[in-house]
Amino acid sequence: PSLRAIRSAMWSDAIMINLDGRAPEFAEHVRHLDAAAAPYGAVREGPNTDNIDYVIDANWKLIVENFIDSYHVKWIHKELDATTPMTTYRYETVGNISIGRAPAPLSRPGYGGNMPGWPGMSEESTQTLTYLALFPNLLLVFSSDQMTCFHLMPDGPFRTRERIKFYMPHDALSPEFETDRTESVNAYRKLNDEDVWLVEELQQSRRSPAFDGGRFSPHWDRITHHFAKQVAEAVLA
Description:
Strand content: 25-35%
Oligomer: single chain
Mean pLDDT: 90
Order of helices and strands: EEHHEHHHEEEEEEHH
């Protein structure tokens, strides 16, 4: 009798809760997310095939900013930039989500196109990588043959536990695609290893007396500025 019910709902297998009861209806909260996922068809029906776990010595907000930003790709992810230059990324901010889109060449291992695609997928989405952040801390990547979900679990102000979860179409579970599935997981592991180093260095730099809050570039930082405003508005609400 001492337990209180709290509002909760699920998108795929991500559990979302609302402690103060003031959040909008769940359908409204995920409306823009649903619209972004729709071109990829049945992405929410794929099984969870693999997981990668990290403990990152950085605040969760730095991880979100790194995820949605492409400005660092040229310097941190040189292999990725060789096939998908940072100048080819397109951005959009809609309500509570920040969206980035990039061309996904079918010949690039690990980023879609090598395994059976999602049922109901649009033609354009077969060669488009979409990544988005649903405020505050759910990160998703959609490609033609997988959905990748980044669960961020804050563990104090200077540490975050992160689990990367992979979902693939049922047809991709065939033994003939085992190498492709492994390449996909390894590709994300390599990219995330490069990002972990970066965000941990950023966390350290915030402890410098020379750090004054930084500046946003009107061109490159539009999407991260949108996220920063969301954080500020939530804190001041």
